[in-house]
Amino acid sequence: MHLSIVFPTLALLSSAEAAETLLGAYIFHRHGDRTPKALAPANLTSLGYDQVYTSGQYFRSRFLSNSSSKIYKLNSDVVKLSQISVTAPVDNVLQNSAMGFLQGLYPPVGEELNVQTLSNGSKVQTPMNGYQLIPVNAVAQGSGSEDSGWLQDASGCENAELSSNNYFSSSDYTKLLNSTKGFYEELVPVVNATFDPSYVTFKNAYIVYDLINVATIHNTSIPSNATLTPGNLLQTRTLADAHEWGLAYNVSDDMRAMAGMQLAGEILKYMNSTITSGSAGLSSNKLGIQFGAYASFFSFFGLASLPAANPDFMGIPDYASSMVFELFTDAAVPSDGFPATSDLQVRFSFHNGTASNFSEPVAYPLFGGKDLAISWNSFADSLSKFAVTTTQDWCTKCGNTTGTCAPYASSTPAPSSTAKSSGGHSGISAAVGGVIGAFVTLAVILGTLAAAMLIGGLRVVSKKRLAGGSPAVEGVATGKA
């Protein structure tokens, strides 16, 4: 009975897949294994290099070589730079991860391909057996993220930093800080060569976990190794998950998820360019690839309601994890054009850790839905609700007024006055803010009374921001009290 049901179902699935034409894709990828953040500068390890290279080989087999899932008109062997876009923040680990991935995606082409004939008839072979040079362009958000212990340090967004700081005054944080004191005290002998005992608390859950995790991968001997039982190792990971999720996403305050908003904007813009170039009869913008930190994964997971599909999305993605957005159609593709947008669909898939032909990404429904594929129009509309696509939009949301945001300062609101600082981070406390607010209110009342008694007119005095600019965020990695 089961066989008679399963086989026809598989046949239908195979038939449906065969009818698909993959028109483009966007990959967001985490870096490979690295040295710990606590011992900056972090560097990509040989293991990490191998992880991203292997992942590049997998996506080559999936998008460039496999006849059933090959991206339409994407060059298979010799890269055509107009067809792909590769980006990463200015960060040693992330930039090197991107380059390692590309070596697997477009390997050297050998002596037969990439030979250039000059006007005098002589031929020039590309060095290193046809090694292909593919630029990795820098994105502004996330620079230096792998040397930073504080999740928001690399964001540059003032309101995102303020929002994350609010986590340190939440009841969830306070409960875990107090209930895990004994657990972290047990870990002190394991990490006291790097951290002061006062630093080893839930406040610094990720940095403590990160150091221990790297040690378990690379160190042949670890102080007080008996403490690191499977249960304790799982506990350090689980607490780090909770800590970083609290900093990266909050359902009632989406400013915390600025990294995910920016990623959404980049996905939307690139996939739009795939459609517009295809509609113009051009074979460009086929594959977008971006390398970034787990903060962007977390923020996007929350914004796209992926924990509704699987609660594991609230856990930190492993090294070399990848999420993929595929643009495809079941309709016929004109030889000199592109299907109508109403015929386009998007499918999201994710793989925790290095993808391979033996362990492939799995499709999940986006935005709290049930379908594994949704129409392009629905995808674009849902993404647009939180995507940040312009510098002005980013500056306005973040409350930044200097640097690239200076031209938009007049339309940029000051950071939210409800944002609190805690967990050892600098800024105006609620108590001090209340005192300042009381004096400002008193001044306004006295000014109003004085104005009422004046005969010669009314003077209007503008208020200045109480904090005199955004409060500096003191990184969790510093461990300062």
TrEMBL record:
SUPFAM superfamilies: Phosphoglycerate mutase-like. The chain crosses the membrane at residues 430-455. Residues 1-18 form the signal peptide. It comes from the Eukaryota. It holds the Pfam family His_Phos_2. GO terms for molecular function: phosphatase activity. Keywords: Membrane, Signal, Transmembrane, Transmembrane helix. InterPro entries: His_Pase_clade-2, His_PPase_superfam, Histidine_acid_phosphatase. Belongs to the histidine acid phosphatase family. This is Phosphoglycerate mutase-like protein.
